[in-house]
Amino acid sequence: MQNFNRCLDDCFLTLSTGPHTMNKFLSNIAFALFIFLLLLGSSNSNAQNSPRNLSPEITKQLNAMTPKQQREFVDKYDIQLPLDAYQVNDEPLLGEKGEPIESYQLPLAYDKTKIQRFGLSFFNKEISTFAPVDDVSVPSDYVLGVGDSLIIQLMESSTERYDLEIARDGTVFIDSLGVISLAGLTFKQAVEMIETRVANQLFGTTVSINMGKLKAMNIFLAGEVRTPGMYSVSSLTTVTQALYQAGGITELGSLRSIQILRNGKNVNTFDAYDLLINGDSTNDIRLKSGDVVLVSPYKAVAEVKGESRRPMLYEVISGETVADLIKMSSGFAEYASPSESVLLTKTSPGSPLNALTLNLLKENDLNTPIGVDDTLIIPKANIAAINYIEISGAAHRTGLIGWQKGMKLSDIITDVNKDFPDYVDLDFSLIVRRTDRFSNLTFLKFSLGELFQDKNFKDIELLEYDHILFFSTTPSVDDASIRETFESALDEEGSRISNLNFEDNNSYKELKAEDSNSNSILSKRSEQFTRQKLLKPFIALIKLESDFQNPPSLVSIIGGVRYPGTYPLFEDASAYDLIEAAGGFLDKAYVDAVELKRPKLKSLTYEFDSIELSMYQTDNNLMSTRLMPLDNLTIRQYSGRNELSTITLSGEFIFPGEYIISQGENIASVIERAGGFTKNAFVNGSVYLKNDVKLSEIKRLKDYSDQIKRSYSSSSLTQESTALSIDEFESVLSLLSSVEPTGRVAIDILDEDLEKFIISDGDSLYIPKKTSSISIVGEVNVNHSVEYKDEYTIDDYLRLSGGLTKRADDTSLYIIKANGSTIVLDKSFFRILGRKPNIEPGDTIVAPVNIQYKDSLTNWTQVSQLIYQSMVSIAAVKGL
């Protein structure tokens, strides 16, 4: 009951978590009732339903569980279940497929009693309302006795029906026929006798005779049955039905030698394996009253392990052979290797195991007798494929392909459009070859482009087990610089950068994302077939095959190539072959001086010699220099071939657009090339954006955010009083995360020293139209813009915006000028001296948040300036 209460507590705890757990609650209630019935049944069981027995409902529930669930069930509720309730035969008794034969060796303390023996579960299905013969036909040789009843139907002018039970004296009485003695007769003899009496005494009358209720009889089940004792059963009960009645056979009971004793003599021996394996029920005889069914302990068992169709423990009897054991286990599994089987046998109990290697395809080995407690191990056959080549990488058809002697590369590659995706590398592919088990890997490179276009291409004959690798043109994920080159190339091909200004920043991002996703070079699938990923396992194998005196046959290349990295040293490879394998030179590569680093072993250490190679010189030419293991090529790059740098001018220019700039050019020069400004240009409101400043602002925002978090967390652990609530604190952090820095730089276009302002690639300058408004933002009641008037003061503008809020810091107001510069104000200072700050059209007045912590005031002010300055820049652009 304690376990039952525990289960109910779990159920009500589940219910308390909410209505969404109702299904789980109902499931737990059902399980609690199931446990209650189990405990109730265990406490009220009688001789034929001991605590070891389970009701059919509980047995059905257990059989529906996995072995793991059954163990958890037992451990959680402290319930003692019989061993056969565990479905251990469903658990894998062996290792994973492909494990070597050593995994089947028996441990020193091997216990076969924990393994399910074949046939035991057949008799362990209890039937609480067992009445197997009440509604079946009675055989003609059935012997009638006291208690049997006959149904006799007389058919004449008046129909009469008699339901007669044989009396204690063995007779029945029928009107018009008298007393008839039937006890001891078979059913056939009784029918013939009654039909004769009717024919002789009742002329013109026919009779129909059927068996009615059958007599009951007492039998006794003894020995290794689960519930031995006296049973009252039907007179047609057989041996197997009697075993069902007794709850089955125990773990020690024999299934092969079940004796039927009648008057103290053995009248029959029943072998359950004849019925279970062969379907032969000849010895499953009908019992007679007073019979004793005796189940003796088993004498010997043998286990079948490995690649059998039914690996289990089997009971064996004297004289049986390995062939009999294989028949019991239903034969060999699909991947069995019968010719390499092992029999662990011992001649007598206590003797050591003797391992015999058997070829179960030969009759002599099949006739090997089974000893005591033997184990037959059937190993898994070597199912590795032969006569194949393999294709991997950027190809539509990958995997194994049948190989024939004389097959060439052109036999399996017929159409570049049909066989390969458009991101396949047409310049470099590789054949990985191992001529035999004792040789190292060799590598042959070829070009798909030459295979399909060069008539002089020397076709390559393929050998068995060749592995062909096709690479994608996508750079490895780790090659950030190369990937950046590809992305910039995509931008140049399909972008509309020249038509975009910073107003279209989001549109540009979306366009770039679409170009990247739709372009096959950067597809996710192609990234799986880079040189780095496809070559990685082979490079690892090369390293395993090497030692100190035989360095790995690997070469590497870095610098100005598309795919730098480590490569296997393919046959007869030159320095130029490695450059081609790495995707060729980049446009920044300096091909006149390629550095080759070659290791030499001296005094047990490697030293490197430097060799200068050239594309055009005769000596040390790239094409004629053969590579050696661990060689490294460095392709120098120089800055003389930098990509074109541009700046974007938009807004009130005579000729707005994108302009190519030279190194060190200043902004004044570009403005002059753009024809200067229009008449409506608001030069003081210029917005200048720089990429490097934007990155710096992103870092500053992150640093400020981290510092604010630390400061707020520290104050919560001390006696300090915080000015912000948790909600306000989270809103500030949310505001920081939502700001997207623009990289705006304050610039005075009318400055005489403007020629000193050097521009860089990716900069942009926007000149808005003239404006006559002042913006008020921050901690004011209404954030908006008002008309500029020369006579207005700071108080006037704040009053027009509804005044300051309670959170405003009226001592730290500041102005963001139209050109992006910032002027911090002291309101009390202006009041005392009666001065008015220099406010001009296009300026923005900012009222920051009041922060009580002096240590954080500076940082908060800088953060708010950064936020509002970004807002002002965006607002100026949106106003176009």
Describe this entry's structure for a reader:
The chain is an alpha+beta fold and 880 residues long. The chain folds into seven domains: 90 residues, no CATH class; 90 residues, Roll (Outer membrane lipoprotein wza fold like), CATH 3.10.560; 63 residues, wza like fold (2-Layer Sandwich), CATH 3.30.1950.10; 90 residues, Outer membrane lipoprotein wza domain like (Outer membrane lipoprotein wza fold like); 43 residues, no CATH class; 96 residues, Outer membrane lipoprotein wza domain like (Outer membrane lipoprotein wza fold like, Roll), CATH 3.10.560.10; 160 residues, Outer membrane lipoprotein wza domain like (Outer membrane lipoprotein wza fold like), CATH 3.10.560. Strand 21 and strand 22 form a beta hairpin. Helix 1 runs antiparallel to helix 2, helix 18 packs antiparallel against helix 19 and helix 18 packs antiparallel against helix 22.
Which features characterize this protein?
880 residues, alpha+beta, Outer membrane lipoprotein wza fold like, wza like fold, 7 domains, five-stranded mixed beta sheet, 35 strands, 23% strand, elongated, disordered N terminus
SSE order and pairing:
Elements: H1 2-15, H2 22-43, H3 56-64, H4 67-77, E1 149-155, E2 160-165, E3 171-174, E4 178-181, H5 187-201, E5 206-211, E6 216-223, E7 229-234, H6 239-245, E8 253-262, E9 265-270, H7 272-278, E10 292-297, E11 300-306, E12 313-316, H8 322-328, E13 341-345, E14 354-358, H9 363-366, E15 374-378, E16 388-393, E17 399-402, H10 409-412, H11 416-419, E18 424-433, E19 442-446, H12 448-453, E20 467-472, H13 480-494, H14 505-518, H15 531-545, E21 554-559, E22 565-568, H16 575-581, E23 589-602, E24 605-613, E25 632-637, E26 645-651, E27 657-661, H17 667-673, E28 687-689, H18 691-716, H19 726-738, E29 744-745, E30 763-767, E31 773-778, E32 784-787, H20 794-800, E33 814-816, E34 822-824, H21 827-833, E35 844-847, H22 854-878
Parallel strand pairs: 6-10, 11-15, 16-20, 21-25, 26-30, 31-35
Antiparallel strand pairs: 1-2, 1-5, 3-4, 6-7, 8-9, 8-10, 11-12, 13-14, 13-15, 16-17, 18-19, 18-20, 21-22, 23-24, 23-25, 26-27, 28-29, 28-30, 31-32, 33-34, 33-35
